[in-house]
Design goal:
Layout lengths: L2 E2 L2 E2 L12 H12 L8 H21 L3 E4 L10 E4 L5 E10 L6 H4 L12 E2 H14 L4 E8 L4 E7 H8 L5 E2 L7 E2 L2 E2 L4 E3 L7 E2 H17 L2
Parallel strand pairs: 5-7
Antiparallel strand pairs: 1-2, 3-4, 4-5, 6-12, 7-8, 8-13, 9-12, 10-11
Helix pairs in contact: 4-5
């Protein structure tokens, strides 16, 4: 999909020029329009850890030192890239997205599902960004593993760029589901914001950036 003059192009404007796109979009809407689970937080965490592990193994094959984040401070980003001597070069969070926000335009005019479905929890990320600014002095990235029907890939954004979208405010407050509660206490996040896919860099860019951090660290030793 494309932008024209920095504007997101409405999805339906492609229908005449891309055969069968309209039919595919209708199938996607029918499937994703309604909740497909109860938003059980423990299952979301389990799936997220699986993708973190796969990404960590890839980094190790590329001669990066991968480790889990600060075990003493669970509010720090979940993952870290380290130098050979153990110095932390960067932190990163992995977010897996497989359900496009098909009604994005209805709630956020000018946003289409294919660029505005990278969902982040407003309250959770806001707290974490405060910690990042006050306590962490190395780069921090939000890595988005996107598995939508029409867009698949790994993209990323710096913490600072993510904050620019958070500062626009809450963009959607979804309905509470059964899985949002544990022992009658709300544990799930329902207020969301949506960084634009267009503002993100590619996975190749991330690997290059991490390589530069590693090389810079090595040259200073």
């Amino acid at each position: 999909m494309y932008k024209i003059n920095d504007q997101v192009v409405p999805r339906h404007s492609f229908f005449e020029n891309i055969p069968q796109l309209e039919d595919e979009c209708k199938k996607c809407w029918k499937y994703f329009l309604n909740p497909r689970n109860k938003s059980v937080k423990s299952l979301d965490v389990q799936m997220g850890k699986n993708f973190e592990e796969k990404l960590g193994l890839f980094f190790e094959k590329k001669n990066f030192i991968f480790k889990k984040g600060d075990n003493k401070n669970k509010k720090y980003p979940d993952n870290a890239i380290c130098s050979l001597n153990g110095d932390i070069l960067a932190y990163y969070e992995v977010k897996y997205h497989q359900a496009p926000f098909v009604k994005a335009y209805n709630f956020n005019p000018g946003r289409e599902c294919y660029e505005g479905s990278v969902t982040l929890d407003y309250a959770k990320v806001k707290k974490q960004l405060e910690i990042i600014k006050n306590e962490i002095d190395v780069p921090v990235y939000y890595v988005h593993w996107i598995d939508f029907p029409c867009i698949k890939g790994i993209f990323y954004q710096s913490a600072a760029d993510t904050e620019l979208f958070l500062n626009k405010g809450i963009e959607y407050d979804r309905k509470e589901r059964e899985g949002d509660f544990r022992n009658n206490k709300k544990v799930g996040y329902t207020k969301k914001f949506y960084p634009s896919l267009y503002s993100m860099k590619t996975f190749e860019d991330l690997c290059m950036e991490l390589s530069n951090l590693r090389d810079l660290n090595d040259s200073n030793k």
